[in-house]
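User: Predict the structure for this protein chain, please.
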Amino acid sequence: MTIGFQVLVALLSVSLFVYCDYTITRWVELVNTEGYWTWRLLLALIAAPLGAVAFGLVATKLGLAAVSAFVNTGIVVGGVVVGIVIRGDDLTVWQKSGLVLGVVAMCLLCVGRSKIDVANP
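Assistant: Here is the predicted structure, written as structure tokens:
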């Protein structure tokens, strides 16, 4: 698996997790008006396992700790971006600097390791 493909799958995993997080949050907010069995719950039930599979694919190549950090940072960054775009929230200077540092951390995590550092199973 090339680095570009690893980054693509990792971003897919992060996107699926952010999507599920937002969808479930909206589902819980609207349970009283729409009921429990809605399309939001169905989509989250379909997307959540796909995110876990994408997480596992990347973890086999980059390592569990690196991918966990990548996905967790991506979920936070994605949640902030969703808050800015969909809800129109305003950010402070500290929040903006944290967002930039999170994106930089995600980029640095994608650098990966050389083939010499990775032991063959």
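The helical segments are 3-29, 31-34, 39-62, 64-85, 93-109.
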